[in-house]
Amino acid sequence: MAKVKKTPRPKAETPKGFRDYFGAEVTGRADMLRKIAGVYHRYGFDALESSAVETVEALGKFLPDVDRPNEGVFAWQEEDDGKWLALRYDLTAPLARVYAQHRNDLPTPYRRYAMGPVWRNEKPGPGRFRQFYQCDADTVGTASPAADAEICAMLADCLEEVGIPRGDYIVRINNRKVLNGVLETMGVSDEGQAADVLRTIDKFDKVGEAGVRELLGKGRLDASGAYIDGVGLNDAQAEPVIAFLTSKGAGNTETLANLRGAVGESAIGVEGVDELEQIAALLEAQGYGPDRIVIDPSVVRGLGYYTGPVFEAELTFEITDEKGRPRQFGSVAGGGRYDDLVKRFTGQAVPATGVSIGVDRLLAALHAKGRVESEAHGPVVVTVMDRERMAEYQAMVGELRREGIRAEVYLGNPKNFGNQLKYADKRQSPVAVIEGAEEKERGVVQIKDLILGAQIAQNATLEEWKDRPSQYEVPRDQMVAKIRDILSEHGLSEAL
Amino acid sequence: MAKVKKTPRPKAETPKGFRDYFGAEVTGRADMLRKIAGVYHRYGFDALESSAVETVEALGKFLPDVDRPNEGVFAWQEEDDGKWLALRYDLTAPLARVYAQHRNDLPTPYRRYAMGPVWRNEKPGPGRFRQFYQCDADTVGTASPAADAEICAMLADCLEEVGIPRGDYIVRINNRKVLNGVLETMGVSDEGQAADVLRTIDKFDKVGEAGVRELLGKGRLDASGAYIDGVGLNDAQAEPVIAFLTSKGAGNTETLANLRGAVGESAIGVEGVDELEQIAALLEAQGYGPDRIVIDPSVVRGLGYYTGPVFEAELTFEITDEKGRPRQFGSVAGGGRYDDLVKRFTGQAVPATGVSIGVDRLLAALHAKGRVESEAHGPVVVTVMDRERMAEYQAMVGELRREGIRAEVYLGNPKNFGNQLKYADKRQSPVAVIEGAEEKERGVVQIKDLILGAQIAQNATLEEWKDRPSQYEVPRDQMVAKIRDILSEHGLSEAL
């Protein structure tokens, strides 16, 4: 007989570059987002949730590549009108669209925060996913440096709120206008050459001062042996860039003086230094000294993208990387001023400034420092000894839940009691409750402290084992109280 | 001179069927989700967040239509391997994929909750959007009716937790197996005819008992004058369906007796009635009486989709619709048992049961009943009277925030003071603070109670106006205390 060809079973797998998040991974992130939202809210920022889907036209950035409108984004064409739609790749492009669309109803300035997933159609790599969370706050409609200062102060507050203590982070501020002033002083007016200088500055972190000098001049042999062509400036021309990058002094006052030297007579440069001075003064007056927020001209990330002040938050403590080497944790948030946000839509320039916190990196940092509960505990498990008395077991978890204690009845096949305890183990339950026919008759329940049980099984000598029982028999009406005691002994909050 | 043709400006608009959510719309939903998650968690359910994007293959439902894999979903093709990806259309299909993929690492039974947006590629209509929230809880891996009972109890708890008081909601339970038993008794074994009967039953809500009788028989002239063909059963054959649909008695005991009559000797039917009996007994033992959760065979929604018990939560209070007519609010949640969830992937049947709460409908219900703060207040606004003293104004909001009071400095152009008050008005600020040079010299600040001011402006006579000033002068060091007083007078929590 011929076999009927069946449709093959679908594969149970996420698409490449996507992943699932379980239990504490989800609630840990939700907690962090809630704390950050609380700070944003207290600063007067309003929540905004735009849709995940935008027209490719509104997202904009990818339009030049007309043949492949889905370059970098996930995009598809509407069936009825042929319009291209796409998943948002960040939260800033949608903000521009929202502000342009609703500007008559929104207050000016408009302070808004947004948090949620964004999508990038990129080649996934280890630890690099095509869906990840962003958590942004932006102020649209004011050019005042007070808005930039406020964003920086709020960023520092957010880091402390989620558990990064003062001293373990630093917010660094730089200004694109200062760099523009430096370029002006150098006599670099050609846009191509200016872009070359920017690209070189971006390598400062990697190649250092000497490397930047070479790259601004004739060029440089890189580590791989390849020769990198230089920008072709002479030494004197290159000097102001070096002065700019290395102008960080012992304090903001000294740094600002050095920057004034670097920009010389350039009007835009002087404006940039003035802005930094105002920001630093506002922050210091509110108690955000340079131990938390500092002017640092070596911050180059984002200088190409932003139009004014740029900010970056770094965690300064060391962690051990996967090869066991100590390294600084690095950047967890960045932002700055970008003034052409809304212009694409309305033709009118609207000044804006904002910050984006990398929630997943920040969570990773807290995990690395052991500052979040990595060992998540499951619920109290009430075992089923007698299938007919399911209602009574349900009543037990009801009592526990009413007292705020997370609890559940075992709902698998109760025949094999070992399986029930294995289940409690897999759930990382702190406590199991047992009430068989014999206990029922005597009006008691057995309460197993599973955390202590595991500790004893691992470490205890026979003597200790005898001295420290991990199972207690208590009258039925003392069940909740005893479980509460056990949980608090282990430092577990009732809600687990 | 020839004009250079410019690219037209992009339109600032959401794609058709999508919308933006602002301020209290976002935080109100987040609060509700947090409360529901709290109940789910207390019941031992674990959070799961799967990616928004799945392979079309894994989503499954749409596969038969091979030529247009994006029927009903938003789908696109990967560039490198040609695979079709799509946005999830619910949270159940991803759960099936996750369970099949991770089943060796997950506990059995696996209780999980999930909340987030889902997407439907459908024609949008008024109030119908192509992105909306779902909030699900499911138990995978147990066939026990105790799992169904638990879901129903949890659903009732969730409704009360978000502010629907007892008496304003009812959870109704029915069972697909009972209907299957009825069909067996009727001698309907042909699948096509069974499907016809199911479709007819689905119209019970609309056409009532008499209508269903006609539709099961020869057919029926509908309201529009069109003749609807009937299923073609004779009166005797149709009787058990009618008995099933109308078997609701004064209490669960009577209903169950009626159902036993309707299913006769059918084994599957008896099994279904037994399950309902167990569920009712478990719930009543825990105090969930028929005033909250009741067996109701007239619940027909979902009977075609689910394989065992089905649940539906309805709000029973009346609201006024857009035409001013009173109507019942209706369904806000539904669910049931579906046992073929994971089989598509693994070939093994895995029993599962769950519920989905329609968060947006539930929010609408709370709004309709005035049970959520519809008038959201903005932050306290500190006005800027003297641009040079920005740092001092920033210090004021700093003090307020440290006391948990939401506050901001006006960051627009401060020249026109009227604009500052207009801004505070647009922000729905409860309080504005004013400190000009003269106040500064005398060590005081002016505090405007904007809520009282608006009330007076609307209602007060001249006498009252004189008696009830809405602006106070207080010493600078009493600013926070005075603002706290004003907020509490208006019943506003400090966090606003």
From TrEMBL, chains A, B:
L-histidine binds at D90, L91, T92, R120, Q134, D138, R301, Y305, Y306. Its EC number is 6.1.1.21. It catalyses: tRNA(His) + L-histidine + ATP = L-histidyl-tRNA(His) + AMP + diphosphate + H(+). InterPro entries: aa-tRNA-synth_II, aa-tRNA-synth_II/BPL/LPL, Anticodon-bd, Anticodon-bd_dom_sf, His-tRNA-ligase, HisRS-like_core, HisRS/HisZ, HisRS_anticodon. Gene3D superfamilies: Anticodon-binding domain, Bira Bifunctional Protein, Domain 2. Residues 42-379 form the Aminoacyl-transfer RNA synthetases class-II family profile domain. GO terms for biological process: histidyl-tRNA aminoacylation. GO terms for molecular function: ATP binding; histidine-tRNA ligase activity. Keywords: Aminoacyl-tRNA synthetase, ATP-binding, Cytoplasm, Ligase, Nucleotide-binding, Protein biosynthesis. PANTHER family: HISTIDINE--TRNA LIGASE, HISTIDYL-TRNA SYNTHETASE. Belongs to the class-II aminoacyl-tRNA synthetase family. This is Histidine--tRNA ligase. The gene is hisS.
